[in-house]
Amino acid sequence: MAQVKAAEKQVKVAEKQAKAAEKIKKAVLEDPFDYTPKKMVGWYDARQLLGTAVKTVISSVFGSYSDKREIQACLAKPDTYDYSHLNEAWVDYMSDTGDGFHSTFTMANLLSEPEREVGGYPTFKGDILILGGDQVYPVANRNDYKNRFRGPFDSACRHQYEQQKAANKLFEKEHHVFAIPGNHDWYDGLSNFIKIFCQERTIGSWLTKQQRSYFAIKLPHNWWLWGIDIQLEADIDHPQLQYFDKIAAKKMQPGDKVILCTAEPSWIFTSRNNDKTYDNLKFFEQRYIVQNGFELVVTLAGDLHHYAHYALTENGKTYHKITSGGGGAFSHPTHNLKDELKLREGKFKLQATFPTKAQSRLMALRTLIFPWFNLQFAAFMGFFYLLFAWLLQENDHAFVTIINQYPLDLNGFLNYTNHVLNIILFSPFMVFFIGLAIFGVTKFTDTKSSRTPFLWLLGLVHGCVHILNGFLLIRLCSSLAFSMEISLWRQIGVLTVALFVAGGLTGCIVMGTYLFICNLVFRIHDNEAFSSFKYSGYKNFLRLHITAEALSIYPIGVERTAVWKKEGKIYHPDQKVKTKLVDEVITIKTKKYEEAPQSVPVLTHNGY
Predict the structure, then answer these.
(1) Given this model, what pLDDT does residue 66 score?
(2) Do the beta carbons of residue 516 and residue 547 sit within 8 Å?
(3) Which residues contact 325 (CB under 8 A, 6 or more apart)?
(4) Cα(534)–Cα(363) distance, rounded to whole angstroms?
(5) I need a labelling partner for 323 at 20 to 30 A (CA). Which of 16, 365, 391, 486 fits?
(6) Cα distance between residue 261 and residue 179, in whole Å
């Protein structure tokens, strides 16, 4: 009788999977593909800077008042997602997607492949895909989700369907996707995130299953995967804590192993000033995992767009903290990562990075050609210097004619400087304008990434250099314009064009040089420096394999993403995408095999 019931259950499961696979296939084939592929986000475009700043302020100020996690808790049942019936499970983990089309499409296409051999190991598409935060850039609105995230994923799955059409391997079984929100997903109060990920929709060849922005997944062989929502560095909400409390009390057993997914690697940020995110994470780990007798062996995070693996070996066991944020956004540096992190648990040592620290330092050289990558910011700087010259002329209508009487030597420059200072000192508005410019540049300084005192002085010097650059440009460009034997209006036109072009170029060079020095010497401005050149290479994701013997983690990297061109409805790459292991395969044995390790030979990592 029991065998009959088991057989009937298997039939129902198979029918359900067949229906789900057909639903995915229909969604991929009938998708209208009415999206617009986007370039990498231009973080230094003036409109982008202003828009992101406004969204950040609004979400920071009003985020706690429009916390939709409370609404989710009322409307959605506190469900778990059970995959423990599987003999083995494959889980893919990727974060920081939805930026440039080519990089996002490349990574989505790799996740869509039924199988791929990496480093001599056969790996298979995850039964579950975990998206670890920041699914879209720059902000979470409907168009960006469609153009930067949904579109590339849907198209990548169509591409894979055509590739596998003969065998039809892509739709043999049901694949699910779960996501936790990052700070960019929270910029609209989580409205679009809930619509996409919490309403059982299709994304490419995956089905969404979660009902809230956090989840607990029961995996085979006493493994669990928890995804938590930290909501813009705020405290974890009470319904979320209750959810995990009930999971721990009613559905787990002491000794169960936990893979914890969080939106940012707060263990790396412990060196920052007044950063309490790690304290929040540590509280959660202790209260809901350690005190319940579970074992937290792996913590995964995105947010930083590189791969970095820290490990602590203690009492014969190894604990891992991994940053894997290579889903498509610009690459972050690794050369400023500490070789050792002194955390409450002990000293975590850096095992591997991708890119390597040497490759990362070479990438930093790109900041020195800042104007090449940021033409809109160059235009902004050109207008700034034009405004500066206009205000000087407004306060002294004979300014441009008088300064040309000073020769281009040291004495002439000193007289010119004295003349400009007299204008400024007798003009309150000029004092306010210059003070505001220097103050704004000083506030731009990344003082939060280091505990080194007086870093704001770097910003002060940076601001003063821009003002001095303006003085010099006005003098040199006016000498050029008024030395020409042409009409006054044409001379003014030449001055305007020369000042705009030279101001944009030199202003960007000053900015790029500042970022280069700060990043390599003072170890700050990782985000600002590397976002300036929007490098799409060095992408990565994790592929986890759970068997009765062990959890194996394959860190898969892509040094160069492909350029995809559309032919009909299908995109094709300009080159074959090459993947490699960027670290050793991380192997963590299950409890019963820890007790008898000689019975199963597995690839070990750091003696564990």
Answers:
(1) 52
(2) no
(3) 95, 96, 132, 134, 301, 302, 303, 304, 305, 306, 307, 332
(4) 11
(5) 365
(6) 10
Distance of CA 455 to the CA centre of its chain: 25
- Cβ 204 vs Cβ 28: under 8 Å: yes
Give residue 474's pLDDT: 85
Coil, helix or strand for 555? strand
pTM: 0.88
For residue 138, whether the previous peptide bond is cis, meaning omega lies within 30 degrees of 0, is yes
Q: Minimal CA–CA distance to 295: which of 245, 255, 260, 267?
A: 255
- pLDDT means per 10 residues, the chain with 608 residues, are 60 62 64 80 80 56 51 59 91 94 94 92 94 89 90 86 66 84 84 88 88 92 92 74 90 92 90 71 89 92 95 88 94 94 89 96 95 92 90 72 69 76 81 90 87 88 92 84 81 87 94 95 93 94 94 96 87 90 92 49 33
d(CA 556, CA 415): 62
**What are the phi and psi torsion angles at 181 (to 5°)?**
-85, 140
Which one-letter amino acid corresponds to residue 471?
Answer: F
How many alpha carbons lie under 13 Å from residue 512 in its C-beta half-sphere? 24
Residue 37 to residue 101: CA distance in whole angstroms: 5
The tokens for 161 are 């369907």
pLDDT of residue 40: 92
Give the type of residue at 45: D
Q: How far apart are CA 30 and CA 603, in angstroms?
A: 44
Q: Rounded CA gap, 105 and 163, in Å? A: 15
Q: Which of 335, 364, 381, 362 is nearest to 510 (CA)?
A: 381
Q: CA torsion sign, 456 to 458 to 461 to 465? A: negative
| Beta-carbon count within 10 A of 524 CB | 21
Cα(226)–Cα(215) distance, integer angstroms: 6
The Cα–Cα gap between 204 and 104 comes to: 13
